[in-house]
Amino acid sequence: MTQPSDPQTEQPGQPDPQGPSAGEEPQAAAPSPAGGEASSTGSDSSGDPAAVQAQLAERTADLQRLQAEYLNYKRRVDRDRGLVRDTATATVLSALLPVLDDVDRARAHGELTGGFKAVAESLERTVAGLGLVRFGEPGEPFDPRVHEALMHELSDDVDGPTARTILQPGYRIGERIVRPARVAVAEPATTVAGVTLDEAEAPQGPGPVDDDVAGPDVADDADVAAADAADTGEDAGSRDPSSRR
Length: 245
Prior knowledge:
50% helix; Nucleotide Exchange Factor Grpe, Chain A, domain 2; 245 residues
């Protein structure tokens, strides 16, 4: 004889009579005190559009400031790196300038031949590739910013200070002068520092007085001096005993 099933006994596949009904949603676990406080704070900030906009503007300003600082730092590092590179290159090339001067002297005396010529030309190509530029040509106007005057002469063939002879060529790297050109300077012979040679060589002191050329004051002074000399001679004659006899 079959016994009636106990309604309290759970059957497989049957819903729990103590569980939520079909129309109810399961209740979430109670939040912790910290989580509840955080959620309430977030709900407060999210509920105020003005506060959200203020936080967004603040974060945007922070990011822009960090980006500007990074760009300035990168620009400064690149500039310092370029300065260090240019300084090192100028130091090395300055040490090679005496060698280049020897090459120029050997070329001027016709001794730059054979293997020595090939080595010299290779050296000149190498320093030119590093940015070393030679300057200084005879006859160009003298410029104290790029020229160093070692000799001075006067000449009627020039209109102003001119680099007549290049004693040693100058070298530059970009706008940086590694060594100025050492030159002999020629200036016009007609004027020296704004004074003509005739005026510079004119004798100093008073000369003979010409009444036609000198003014009335000068002529009167000369007549007075002559009269004083005559009076002095007369006084000396009056005091001479032989003149009384």
